[in-house]
């Protein structure tokens, strides 16, 4: 009996102990070399029981057996297994895994390890764009990513910036990517009152940026569906970190000048050329130009041009020395619950074009607070004020660069040395506007993005984001009574635009590991955006004094208008990623987008995408290979859209007007209820590789993008009473290769050298255009050709017998060939396609060297295959057809029979080769030293005495060298009067070159 009782008691105690053993709870902290790790995974081996660490690296796992093994893992770090052995508290420090690609990428509504990414995403860190002295965010990215072309339109400080990701995917719709900052899609509309654009992102401070991800293929961009066709640029701003409060200061100052100046005739050369041109037409005895009191004397305004008393270099008056000041500070830190980042910045850029400058003040505050283990909230805010002193568009005599058309025989100033002279100059003297007028633009921008994140279950969280973007821009223009507005006794206008965007994102994230080898993550939710715009404009003439410069003082209001508009998007999206055994990767996404811009029957569009990846280096036959660190194959396919059209493009519109002083309503737009989404199908295949412990890494990609149902402003016959109608017409393709190579060439205790190289090709073709060719100026859209190809008469040089300009006939012959005989009769020559405004090959190469306390880096940029047509060539290189000053190559003109030259005989007032032809078309192939930086970090022994953590002095240059055969100002500068969605591309017209800048600066961390 006793033995039975004893046996029963023993059995009960064993069961109780077993039960107690399996109800054990284990907690602790997971860290790396830098401190606690948020988001690390802790899993009980052989089960699905586990947890993730919180923001302080803490975890808690229940129901852990006394002999259980815990698996600790984190992206980019070595996975570690640890036997609990009855412990209730376990702290682990994970070490770096050199076989992993450590970078974590922002992918839109989440993050992902670069190692597991199956898309093509270019990632650019703050280190790669910091301390590059350019006023715009986009310009700092130039040459940093394969397949991404970034071009500032011209050298004006506020000048528009063109960003093209994998070519051009639209004709009339937007060609710009979607910008998203901390989850908030940005307003990216040019609101300039004139044809010269203002970069919409000029108010953003590049120093506040932590990283930028460029989503290039459809699989990555399709999560943004309707606006992903042109790529997506995800901007992440800097955040605080728990620990000691850190204060950082960056201050710099520098000097700028034009990258290039053209060579123009001096006074003696001008007199020689035009005297000869006049002799051809009127005979050598006609001295109407040179006789006392003649035209030249009139230009000279009392000065003796014959003895060189006047020789004005108008180019030097237009292109001046500029300067740059950039001052930024930040304070960041926090504790286990709250982290913060605060920054302030000031930028002053005095442009290289006379009268053009910018001041920008900026503030950013980012706050993240952990309310509890399950609830987290955050708020990111940004305020900025930007003031721009503007100048005219390229197509206005008031703009400084058109001063090069003035004759060097005319003095720029009167004898008092101050008052500009507008009585004897050939054209309007731009200095009149500088001294007697002004044009200011003020931009106030507010960005706010808040979030609440709730952890419902260890595997499931919900996040709600509310974003707001407000862009207020005012422009005030005044031209006094001494300017070109003298006849109206002064002119002034005021333009005010307020743009608002509200954004709401609500989405769930589910992430779970199944049986160790399977990981599933699902993101699903909705997004709503509403954008509104209001504009007021008023203009007046007749001012009692040039000191009174606002419209309020005008004696007559000549114009006034106001408008308001609104549009919205409603979207639902989902994305699932699945990995098997950490080497087989699958991803799929779907977005259902609705836009108020399209017809009622086509308002919504479906944008699916899928991608796969195989990490071959995780297979047993490569897993322990000492040469191959990473080898991954990936492929993707997806559909993205474009909605970059007018807010009411599908509707028939009417507007109010006046008829015989009676109010009336007139039709202003034809209806097209069938208008639907422009869609792009994109395929991408790529290889990611790493060798020798990832000292050599890179990517190789091939892509094909086919855009269908192009949103095209299709011209209509004049007899219809309408000029154009927005329709879904035609298709085009972009395809190309991309290659990225990153190498660590040297890595020792005192010396390191890293190189990053990217190459990309582009083949753009129009594949369908039912309405036939579309011709605009010197550009054409034609099936089988690159969009906006150049369409010109072909110049054939000069007849050595008589100095006549010659052109190839290029008429189509019976056998299908072109007739290459020449003619002096321009009307007999046929236009042909002669080039493209888009490069076919682009490259960027960055080298970074560190030697003890010195750092040195430089980036080269190159482009090949594009051309630019100089529309001003017919005035400035026209062998004296007009009175404009000429480029010095016109001195090589034909003068006598037998002369072999490419410049026809000078003939005043007579056409002789200045007509639109390939004579003014130039290849823009170039290689540019984009930026160079040399820095020195003071030794710790010195900084400790100064009570600072780090101090670095640096010297940086931008656009220091350019190697090109291009004859114009700069191979990247183009006409700022074309408009972004216009067919006319690759045109130069008195377009200012970019700035060459050298700055010195100081970084201090406290």
UniProtKB/TrEMBL annotation:
<comment type="similarity">
    <text>Belongs to the TonB-dependent receptor family.</text>
</comment>
<keyword id="KW-0732">Signal</keyword>
<dbReference type="Pfam" id="PF00593">
    <property type="entry name" value="TonB_dep_Rec_b-barrel"/>
</dbReference>
<protein>
    <submittedName>
        <fullName>TonB-linked SusC/RagA family outer membrane protein</fullName>
    </submittedName>
</protein>
<feature type="domain" description="TonB-dependent receptor-like beta-barrel">
    <location>
        <begin position="413"/>
        <end position="959"/>
    </location>
</feature>
<feature type="domain" description="TonB-dependent receptor plug">
    <location>
        <begin position="114"/>
        <end position="232"/>
    </location>
</feature>
<dbReference type="InterPro" id="IPR037066">
    <property type="entry name" value="Plug_dom_sf"/>
</dbReference>
<keyword id="KW-0998">Cell outer membrane</keyword>
<dbReference type="Pfam" id="PF13715">
    <property type="entry name" value="CarbopepD_reg_2"/>
</dbReference>
<dbReference type="InterPro" id="IPR012910">
    <property type="entry name" value="Plug_dom"/>
</dbReference>
<keyword id="KW-0813">Transport</keyword>
<keyword id="KW-1134">Transmembrane beta strand</keyword>
<dbReference type="InterPro" id="IPR023996">
    <property type="entry name" value="TonB-dep_OMP_SusC/RagA"/>
</dbReference>
<dbReference type="InterPro" id="IPR008969">
    <property type="entry name" value="CarboxyPept-like_regulatory"/>
</dbReference>
<dbReference type="InterPro" id="IPR023997">
    <property type="entry name" value="TonB-dep_OMP_SusC/RagA_CS"/>
</dbReference>
<keyword id="KW-0472">Membrane</keyword>
<keyword id="KW-0812">Transmembrane</keyword>
<dbReference type="InterPro" id="IPR036942">
    <property type="entry name" value="Beta-barrel_TonB_sf"/>
</dbReference>
<dbReference type="InterPro" id="IPR000531">
    <property type="entry name" value="Beta-barrel_TonB"/>
</dbReference>
<feature type="signal peptide">
    <location>
        <begin position="1"/>
        <end position="23"/>
    </location>
</feature>
<keyword id="KW-0798">TonB box</keyword>
<dbReference type="Pfam" id="PF07715">
    <property type="entry name" value="Plug"/>
</dbReference>
<dbReference type="GO" id="GO:0009279">
    <property type="term" value="C:cell outer membrane"/>
</dbReference>
<dbReference type="InterPro" id="IPR039426">
    <property type="entry name" value="TonB-dep_rcpt-like"/>
</dbReference>
């Amino acid at each position: 009996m006793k033995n039975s009782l004893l046996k029963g008691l023993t059995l009960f105690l064993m069961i109780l102990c077993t039960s107690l053993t399996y109800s054990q709870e284990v907690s602790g902290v997971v860290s790396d070399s830098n401190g606690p790790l948020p988001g690390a995974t802790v899993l009980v081996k052989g089960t699905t029981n586990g947890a993730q660490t919180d923001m302080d690296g803490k975890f808690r796992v229940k129901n852990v057996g006394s002999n259980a093994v815990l698996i600790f893992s984190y992206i980019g770090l070595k996975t570690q297994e640890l036997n609990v052995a009855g412990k209730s508290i376990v702290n682990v420090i994970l070490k770096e895994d050199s076989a992993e690609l450590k970078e974590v990428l922002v992918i839109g509504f989440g993050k992902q390890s670069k190692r597991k990414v199956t898309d093509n995403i270019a990632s650019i860190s703050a280190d790669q764009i910091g301390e590059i002295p350019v006023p715009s965010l986009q310009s700092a990215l130039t040459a940093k990513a394969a397949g991404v072309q970034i071009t500032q339109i011209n050298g004006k400080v506020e000048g528009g910036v063109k960003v093209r990701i994998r070519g051009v995917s639209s004709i009339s719709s937007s060609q710009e990517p979607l910008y998203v900052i901390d989850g908030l899609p940005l307003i990216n509309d040019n609101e300039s009152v004139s044809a010269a654009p203002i970069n919409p992102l000029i108010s953003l401070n590049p120093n506040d940026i932590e990283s930028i991800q460029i989503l290039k293929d459809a699989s990555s961009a399709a999560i943004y569906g309707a606006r992903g066709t042109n790529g997506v640029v995800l901007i992440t701003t800097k955040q605080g970190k728990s620990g000691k409060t850190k204060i950082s200061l960056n201050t710099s100052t520098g000097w700028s000048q034009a990258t290039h100046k053209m060579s123009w005739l001096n006074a003696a050369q001008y007199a020689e050329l035009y005297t000869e041109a006049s002799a051809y037409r009127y005979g050598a005895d006609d001295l109407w130009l040179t006789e006392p009191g003649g035209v030249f004397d009139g230009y000279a305004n009392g000065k003796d041009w014959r003895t060189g008393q006047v020789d004005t270099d108008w180019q030097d008056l237009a292109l001046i020395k500029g300067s740059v000041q950039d001052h930024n500070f930040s304070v960041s830190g926090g504790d286990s619950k709250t982290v913060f980042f605060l920054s302030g910045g000031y930028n002053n850029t005095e442009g290289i074009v006379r009268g053009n400058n910018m001041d920008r003040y900026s503030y950013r505050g980012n706050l993240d607070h952990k309310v509890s283990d399950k609830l987290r909230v955050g708020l990111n805010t940004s305020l900025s004020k930007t003031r721009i002193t503007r100048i005219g568009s390229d197509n206005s005599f008031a703009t400084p660069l058109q001063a090069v058309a003035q004759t060097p025989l005319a003095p720029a100033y009167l004898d008092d040395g101050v008052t500009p002279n507008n009585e004897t100059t050939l054209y309007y003297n731009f200095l009149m506007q500088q001294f007697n007028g002004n044009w200011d633009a003020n931009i106030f921008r507010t960005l706010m993005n808040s979030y609440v994140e709730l952890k419902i279950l260890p595997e499931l969280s919900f996040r709600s984001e509310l974003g707001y973007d407000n862009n207020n821009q005012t422009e005030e223009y005044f031209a006094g009574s001494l300017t070109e507005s003298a006849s109206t006794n002064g002119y002034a206008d005021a333009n005010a635009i307020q743009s608002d965007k509200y954004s709401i994102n609500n989405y769930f994230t589910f992430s779970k590991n199944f049986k160790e080898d399977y990981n599933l993550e699902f993101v699903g939710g909705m997004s709503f955006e509403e954008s509104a715009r209001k504009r007021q404009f008023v203009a007046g003439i007749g001012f009692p004094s040039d000191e009174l410069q606002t419209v309020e003082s005008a004696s007559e209001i000549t114009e006034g208008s106001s408008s308001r508009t609104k549009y919205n998007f409603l979207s639902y999206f989902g994305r699932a990623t699945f990995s098997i055994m950490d080497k087989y990767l699958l991803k799929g996404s779907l977005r259902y987008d609705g836009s108020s811009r399209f017809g009622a029957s086509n308002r919504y569009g479906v944008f699916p995408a899928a991608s796969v990846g195989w990490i071959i280096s995780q297979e047993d036959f490569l897993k322990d290979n000492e040469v191959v660190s990473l080898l991954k194959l990936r492929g993707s396919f997806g559909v993205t859209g474009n909605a970059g059209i007018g807010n009411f493009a599908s509707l028939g519109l009417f507007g109010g007007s006046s008829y015989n002083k009676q109010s009336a309503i007139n039709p202003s737009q034809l209806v097209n209820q069938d208008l639907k989404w422009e869609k792009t199908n994109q395929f991408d295949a790529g290889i990611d590789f790493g060798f020798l412990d990832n000292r050599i890494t890179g990517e190789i990609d091939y892509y094909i993008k086919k855009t269908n149902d192009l949103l095209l402003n299709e011209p209509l016959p004049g007899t219809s009473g309408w000029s154009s109608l927005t329709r879904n017409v035609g298709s085009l393709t972009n395809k190309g290769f991309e290659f990225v190579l990153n190498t660590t060439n040297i890595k020792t205790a005192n010396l390191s050298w890293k190189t990053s190289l990217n190459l990309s090709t582009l083949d753009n073709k129009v594949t369908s255009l039912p309405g036939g060719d579309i011709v605009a100026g010197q550009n054409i859209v034609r099936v089988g050709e690159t969009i906006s190809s150049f369409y010109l008469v072909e110049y054939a040089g000069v007849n050595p017998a008589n100095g006549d300009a010659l052109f190839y006939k290029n008429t189509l012959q019976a056998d299908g060939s072109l007739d290459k005989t020449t003619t002096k009769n321009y009307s007999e020559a046929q236009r042909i396609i002669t080039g493209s405004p888009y490069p076919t090959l682009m490259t960027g190469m960055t080298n970074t060297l560190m030697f003890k306390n010195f750092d040195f880096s430089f980036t080269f940029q190159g482009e090949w295959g594009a051309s630019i047509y100089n529309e001003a060539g017919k005035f400035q290189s026209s062998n004296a057809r007009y009175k404009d000053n000429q480029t010095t190559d016109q001195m090589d003109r034909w003068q006598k029979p037998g002369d072999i030259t490419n410049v026809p005989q000078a003939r005043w007032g007579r056409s002789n080769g200045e007509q639109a032809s390939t004579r003014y078309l130039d290849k823009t192939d170039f290689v540019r030293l984009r930026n160079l930086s040399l820095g020195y970090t003071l030794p710790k022994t010195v900084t400790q005495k100064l009570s600072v953590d780090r101090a670095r002095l640096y010297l940086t240059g931008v656009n220091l060298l350019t190697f090109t055969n291009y004859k114009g100002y700069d191979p990247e500068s183009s006409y700022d009067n074309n408009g972004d969605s216009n067919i006319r591309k690759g045109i130069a017209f008195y377009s200012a070159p970019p700035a060459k800048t050298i700055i010195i600066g100081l970084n201090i961390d406290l």
